[in-house]
UniProtKB/TrEMBL annotation:
It comes from the Bacteria. Residues 41-117 form the Gfo/Idh/MocA-like oxidoreductase N-terminal domain. Pfam families: GFO_IDH_MocA (PF01408). This is Oxidoreductase family, NAD-binding Rossmann fold. GO terms for molecular function: nucleotide binding. The lineage of its organism: Bacteria, Bacteria division TA06.
């Protein structure tokens, strides 16, 4: 069984991942390092519930005891620093979504991967069976993708990144621009819509619904027909974790390359800039190098303040 090192338990993902891994018998959380907002009582509860054997006080100690490390911080601005510290010890690092929230961090992660670092990620929805099945169908049967629509709820980045990664899972890389199309508001809820253009002429539309949970709904229009489906969220964690376990056991990596993960972030960065500029189309290559992106520190503070204990 492969040993996983857990870095922080800010979100509910460690609980969900640990439960699935326990049933699979292929891997498990063996050690934990925590400098997030969860207290020692929750760390102790997580360790007891899921059989985590070692409490580490440094990242070096964690890396020395495991086969791979999983970063579960709710502040995505910390992901790069944590990953760099762990990658120095030659261990694969999984970064939970969003992998980053600003262009500079995306570029640095791409540099690390190009230099041989193994960085795994990020959204489980990218690997949803429905997405993988449709993407894998022969084009002669499925038709060539013309446009893809995806809808998601909750917020504009931390959760919405799921649907943009799912679009990436269907269409692959090659996005060149994003444009804000408009919004609708009612009863304190806001829906916003963005158009993504790809180098090969394909387009995608993603829709966020802020303040309310929504299913992951997708529609793909091809040259032969229209495919419409709702992603079964009960299967997405297993789809991601099975691929990670496959890699740890065989060395064959079937997860998306870092450049594809960061492309999803760049799409959303361009979309945010387009919204600020009144709907002007923004190229992914035109995002300013000093663009502040999405504020992970602010999100993390708000997330911590709103969170209840889930591990104690």
């Amino acid at each position: 069984m492969k040993k996983i090192g857990c870095v922080n338990i800010d979100t509910s993902h460690p609980r969900s991942f640990a439960g699935y891994l326990q049933k699979s018998g292929r891997a498990g959380y063996y050690a934990i390092y925590n400098d997030g907002f969860r207290g020692e009582d929750e760390v102790a509860g997580f360790m007891k519930t899921y059989g985590v054997q070692k409490r580490c006080v440094t990242l070096e100690e964690l890396a020395g005891n495991v086969d791979a490390c999983f970063i579960h911080s709710c502040d995505w601005d910390r992901n790069l620093g944590l990953a760099e510290a762990l990658l120095k010890f030659g261990k694969p690092v999984f970064i939970d979504k969003p992998i980053a929230g600003r262009l500079a961090d995306c570029r640095r992660l791409e540099e690390l991967a190009a230099g041989g670092a193994v960085i795994l990620g990020s959204s489980s929805v990218r690997y949803a069976p429905e997405v993988v099945e449709l993407a894998g169908q022969p084009e002669a049967e499925r038709g060539r993708f013309l446009t893809v629509f995806g809808s998601v709820g909750v917020d504009e980045f931390n959760y919405a990144i799921h649907i943009v990664e799912a679009i990436g899972g269907l269409l692959g890389p090659g996005a060149v621009s994003c444009r804000f199309l408009g919004r609708a508001e009612s009863d304190g809820k806001r829906s916003e819509t963005f158009l993504v253009r790809f180098q090969n002429g394909t387009t995608a539309v993603y829709n966020t619904c802020l303040g309310v949970g929504q299913p992951f709904e997708m529609m793909a229009v091809t040259t032969r027909t229209t495919h419409q489906f709702r992603i079964d969220s009960s299967r997405i964690y297993g789809a991601l974790l099975d691929r990670i376990c496959d890699y740890l056991e065989t060395g064959v990596n079937r997860l998306a390359p870092v450049a594809e993960l960061t492309e999803s972030v760049k799409i959303m960065l361009a979309g945010r800039l387009s919204r600020e500029r009144g709907g002007a189309e923004v190229g992914l290559d035109a995002i300013p190098a000093d663009d502040p992106g999405y504020d992970g520190t602010a999100f993390g503070k708000g997330y911590a303040a709103a969170s209840k204990k889930i591990y104690a």
